[in-house]
Amino acid sequence: MKKQYVESAALTIVYLICSGITVFYFNTSGTLLEFITYPARAFIEPIVNKEFSFRTINLMLFTVYFLWSCNCVYLNLIKSTLKELKSNVIKKL
């Protein structure tokens, strides 16, 4: 498996944990933070409320896959940008 996929999975887990703590222990209603943490709420609320149905399980799986794929893209962009900046700095020297 590619190293990037594992890094993305780890980043997704960290996001879900941090956002879950933020959503359930701090008041985030009506803020930008509520928008940012919505995928974590969609994933964690069925677990907390013990509402398992076909619909909630599909939503949870979609949320995890969506976060993982976004993290893959973002990590790829960040790494390529850093590589480009590093090569530009070396060329200038």
Q: Can you give the mean pLDDT?
A: 81
Shape: elongated
Characterize the main sheet: none
Number of strands: 0
If you compute it from the alpha carbons, what radius of gyration comes out, rounded to the nearest whole angstrom? 17 Å
| Tally of contiguous helical segments | 4
State which percent range the strand residues make up.
under 5%
Structural class: mainly alpha
Commentary on this structure:
The protein is mainly alpha-helical and 93 residues long. It has 4 helices and no strands. Helix 3 (38-49) runs antiparallel to helix 4 (54-92). 11% of the residues are buried. The model has no long low-confidence stretch (mean pLDDT 81).
Q: How would you concisely characterize the structure shown here?
A:
It contains four helices and no strands.
Index terms:
mainly alpha, single chain, 93 residues
Topology:
Layout: H1 3-25, H2 32-36, H3 38-49, H4 54-92
